[in-house]
Amino acid sequence: MSERGHDPARASSPRAAFPFSRAMAFGLGVLRLGPQDFWSMTPRELYRAAEGVYGRRAAMSRAALDALMRDFPDRES
Q: Which of 22, 28, 29, 33 is deepest in the core (most CB within 10 A)?
């Protein structure tokens, strides 16, 4: 990694970056966590907290699954 936290090996990855702004808005704004509490949470804990506030998400549609499979194939085409 470079000094600014940029990893050139991941630069070409099609995976979306973690939505820190949205996560912070939810954790600090909706849950009203203090910064230390927010930053000590794991992404899984934050996800479960969101589930507690908004409920479980509905099952993924076939179209959404097909789009994910197309965007993130198990192997090169």
A: 33
Torsion of CA 53, 51, 35, 3, to 10 degrees: -150
Q: Concatenated DSSP letters for the chain?
A: --TTS--GGGTT--SPPP-HHHHHIIIIIIS---HHHHHHS-HHHHHHHHHHHH-PPPPPPHHHHHHHHHHS-SS--
In the chain, domain spans: 19-71
* Number of C-beta neighbours around residue 48 at 10 A: 11
